[in-house]
Design goal:
single chain; about 110 residues; alpha+beta; 5-stranded antiparallel beta sheet; 5 strands; globular; XdhC family protein; XdhC_CoxI
């Protein structure tokens, strides 16, 4: 089994490390806070490479597209950031978190 043939159900940190060792630039997005009906618990991960490929989930599809776009930017800049989404936030409708709740996701480059 090659380094890139990792079962997506494996630890996202192992996926990030394998991708990094294979020469891919990688970011890790981690759910750091939730409130209400957020679909993923604190500690959930999404691993993203510089081309926008990803494994894992931070919201069950509600905000993944926005998180992936931000992660690609984090990979380029090297500057981590915390993203916030929720129904009280104007971005909630744009990214589809209309089910209620709030979510904070920390995005950092993996070196």
């Amino acid at each position: 089994m090659s380094e890139l043939s990792i079962n997506p159900l494996d630890d996202p940190l192992a996926i990030a490390e394998a991708w990094r060792k294979a020469g891919r630039n990688v970011a890790l997005a981690t759910v750091v806070e939730t409130w209400g009906s957020a679909p993923r618990p604190v500690g959930s991960h999404l691993v993203i490479d510089a081309d926008g490929n990803f494994e894992g989930s931070v919201s069950g599809g509600c905000v993944e597209g926005a998180v992936i776009a931000e992660a690609v930017d984090v990979i380029g800049s090297g500057e981590p950031r915390t993203l916030e989404f929720g129904v009280a936030d104007e971005t909630a409708w744009r990214v589809g978190l209309s089910c209620g709740g709030r979510i904070k996701v920390f995005v950092e480059k993996v070196d």
